[in-house]
Amino acid sequence: MAQTPTPRRRQKLAELISDDIKRWIATEGMTEGDRLPNEKTLMELYGCAKGTVRESLKILEVEGLITLKTGPGGGAILHTPSMEPASRMLRNFLHFRSLDGHQVYQLRRLLEVELAVSVVGRLSAEELESLASNIGACECSHPSDEDQRRQRFLELEFHNLLARACPNPLLAFMCRFLNDMLRDLVVVKKAYIPERKQFDAANHRYHRELVEAFRDEDRERVRLLMDEHMRDAEAHMSALEAEMADQMLISQETLFDADQDSPLLRLVSQSR
Questions:
Q1: What is the pLDDT of residues 10-25, one digit of tens each?
Q2: Which CATH number fits domain 84-256: 3.20.20.450, 3.40.30.10, 3.40.50.720, 1.20.120.530?
């Protein structure tokens, strides 16, 4: 027996208007700082009430596409949205889907290589210096957990610096999004504990060699190095996740052995 399809939610008029305004912005080639028509003009154009127009503009503001200013000279002004709101929403979507490092690297192995190759010959002297400075910041001693966490973030920032120079905005967004996913995994799984000197050394070496290859504009060398770097990083991430899982198992077994009369265990026994 065929299942009855779930009816789609009908869009509110304010949502339809906001979608149409976005299409109009794209068609007209409008840029940051341009103004949308005022409320009265939009009301006449769409034949709707002031409240509906304001709701549609609020949708665009929440999405980061416009800034609403009050008073003389105010109105809806176009604003180039940052990637953070979109990245955060996608990460929220994946939050309850048990994402692990292997799944992230399944994409990252491919995309980071293409991104690195795309910026060969495009990096300015200032951008190359930023990459070198990032490596220098990573190579300091890091005795505390907070220092180690900072180092993981700096290593990801090296790749974000490359993404900012990427001529393909979709590729740049996807790579920065994956870096955000890894940053979340670092925090949630405390991937900076225990200290991993071998992983640190490998990251530093690959980053140094990549900067040299970028300076030489050696496209094939960049491709080879980034491919090796991603495979090495995935291996370290897999080993870390396995180690963390073992530690959790040992901790649970120790807890059970130490307190067989715990309230939780009594509840489990009573339910059998």
A1: 788 999 999 999 999 9
A2: 1.20.120.530
